[in-house]
């Protein structure tokens, strides 16, 4: 059985590399899926004993200021070019959704190259991601890169501690952070003061996010000097780089507003409803005591409060728990119907660049 699973995973990886990287190596970019002790999984659809469609997924927990959310990340969806359009991609994603749901994921998330394809299959935009532009005009206002140097293996413990200080993040253990910091084609710098690492930042990841600072940790006076160093290295080849910032990092958003950096507020990912029992538990962690959530079917949740009960279905559930760009309109309807303020909703999750698959 172990040999069969290994062979299946190798065949899936070969298909991913063919479709997503034109045959180039792929596994080192996703150690939590492909390294020997990885907790992530690969699902496949086979025809005539050949893997014809595949994807990767991993069970994770999103920490937010008001509730933790059990989720599944799905990615690296690939179908053999010769049989596209026959439903194999839809099938492998649907089967993965079911497995994630049965393992207790309140929702599944993915990062889509073709959002319309996923929307036609029940996925909707989810959450908020802010991206700011660093270019010649505002980079001159960045602090000097004093104390900034390339990260080493000995810094990984400090980097993990800084990462874990974020209120919105994917929960990780130290060993997972260490593995992710080893992905190819990534620049990682730290800021050191008095012998202590007080900030870090990463740009690039394999063949993705090449001009994007996608993960960082520390106070602005420790991270912005690193941004200055990254810009100094990048400016000879690029006229701009980008920095991802969660909604929960108000000091950073205020800084970029102050320096009049161009920015955009986009969606975090695409999402699909998972286990409604797990989702109801997530709601209850964020709701006041006088309001309760209960799963009434695989597609519905009831929110009950002092004034009445409101049944939410499928997309309404996702739009209440974490709508795109923080839109509270569904939450406001719930507040009116149940007769209670819901300050804990919507949630503010964020997925840093090293966690996407």
From TrEMBL:
InterPro entries tied to this protein: Acetyltransferase_Eis, Acyl_CoA_acyltransferase, GNAT_dom
Gene3D superfamilies reported in the protein's UniProt record: 3.40.630.30
Alphabetized Pfam families for the sequence: Acetyltransf_9
Protein name: N-acetyltransferase domain-containing protein
Domain N-acetyltransferase, residue spans: 1-147
A GO term, aspect molecular function: aminoglycoside N-acetyltransferase activity
GO terms classed as biological process: aminoglycoside antibiotic catabolic process
Cross-referenced CDD domains: NAT_SF
């Amino acid at each position: 059985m172990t040999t069969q699973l290994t062979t299946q995973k190798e065949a899936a990886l070969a298909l991913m590399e063919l479709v997503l990287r034109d045959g180039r190596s792929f596994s080192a970019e996703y150690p939590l899926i492909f390294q020997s002790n990885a907790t992530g999984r690969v699902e496949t659809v086979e025809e005539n004993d050949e893997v014809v469609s595949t994807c990767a997924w991993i069970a994770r927990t999103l920490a937010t200021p008001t509730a933790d959310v059990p989720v599944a990340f799905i990615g690296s969806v690939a179908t053999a070019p010769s049989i596209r359009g026959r439903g194999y991609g839809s099938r492998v994603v649907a089967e993965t959704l079911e497995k994630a749901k049965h393992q207790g994921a309140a929702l599944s998330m993915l990062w889509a190259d073709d959002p319309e394809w996923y929307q036609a299959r029940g996925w909707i935009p989810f959450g908020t991601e802010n991206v700011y532009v660093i270019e010649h005009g505002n980079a001159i206002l960045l602090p000097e890169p004093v104390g900034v140097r390339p990260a080493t293996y000995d810094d990984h413990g400090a980097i993990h501690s800084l990462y874990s200080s974020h209120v919105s993040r994917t929960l990780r253990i130290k060993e997972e952070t260490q593995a992710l910091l080893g992905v190819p084609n990534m620049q990682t710098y730290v800021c050191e003061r008095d012998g202590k690492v007080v900030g870090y930042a990463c740009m690039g990841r394999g063949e993705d996010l090449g001009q994007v600072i996608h993960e960082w940790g520390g106070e602005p006076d420790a991270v912005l000097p690193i941004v200055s160093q990254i810009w100094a290295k990048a400016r000879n080849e690029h006229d701009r780089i980008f920095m991802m910032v969660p909604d929960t990092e108000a000091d950073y958003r205020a800084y970029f507003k102050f320096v009049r950096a161009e920015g955009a507020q986009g969606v975090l990912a695409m999402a699909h409803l998972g286990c409604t029992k797990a989702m109801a538990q997530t709601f209850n962690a964020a709701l006041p005591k006088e309001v309760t959530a209960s799963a009434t079917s695989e597609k519905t949740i009831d929110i009950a409060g002092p004034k009445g009960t409101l049944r939410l279905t499928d997309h309404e559930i996702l739009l209440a728990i974490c709508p795109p760009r923080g839109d509270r309109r569904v939450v406001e309807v719930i507040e009116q119907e149940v007769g209670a303020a819901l300050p804990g909703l919507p949630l503010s999750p964020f997925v840093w660049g090293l966690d996407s698959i």
